[in-house]
Amino acid sequence: MKCNLLLVLGIGILGIGCSKKVYTSENTVYKDKAAALADTIKNPPTIRTKYADSLVMTDHWLGTSNFNLRKPNLVIIHHTAQNSCEQTFNTFRSESTQVSAHYVICRDGIIQHMLNDYLRAWHAGIGTWDNITDVNSASIGIELDNNGNEPFSDKQINSLIQLLGYLKKTYNIPNANFIGHADVAPGRKVDPSAYFPWQKLAYEGFGYWYSDTTGVNVPESFNALEALRIVGYDVKDSAKAISAFKLHFEHKGIPETFLTPADRKIIFTLYRKYL
Question: Which of 15, 36, 138, 192 sits between 20 and 30 A of 53, alpha carbons compared?
């Protein structure tokens, strides 16, 4: 990154990535697409003409004055699985890749904002969390510049925490709704990897962590899979759900698809935070 801008976000100062080279053509595409979406919103719905033979509707459009933009209610954290921020920027600016995110955080802690928070980024793909089956429509995607086989830098995590604080306050996002890509796509994705410091984020108010399990007695009737469902995991494929849980809460990068007594203790103390 060749230069920095400072953006005050209420609770702190974040560095926003920039470059002496302005990506004029890509930004023009962005503006054109945003303008087309704005026109779609401004124009009256066409359902009455498209389905005139099957729907009983009035012959005129009557608009309400009580509405606003949808707001995100989830934050999904990723690692880029690439080798540099510039490589990721190129990926997200290429229409052929069909992938994007709202924010990218580089190793030096600089944040690049790439998409308006109210727009739907293509970052999560097919996934489920709780009762949400279209995760992209409900979430903000944050990518950390990391190849998946290395620790995250302190500067990167510190910038992430400041950004999450801003997003949480701005959109009133619940603690439980700060999760990873692997959580919403178990078995398909493993980001943000076993190196990611979920416990540190939980202590800052982003996501939950389990309590001390010393002396915990788990009732024989306790259903661990049902508890994982309450936490938010899709448990239709129990092995994949267990593997995603262990990646997040036990930092196990090698998939494990069975539950030990110690795992059951962790799940037992964890799920009660979601009740």
Answer: 36
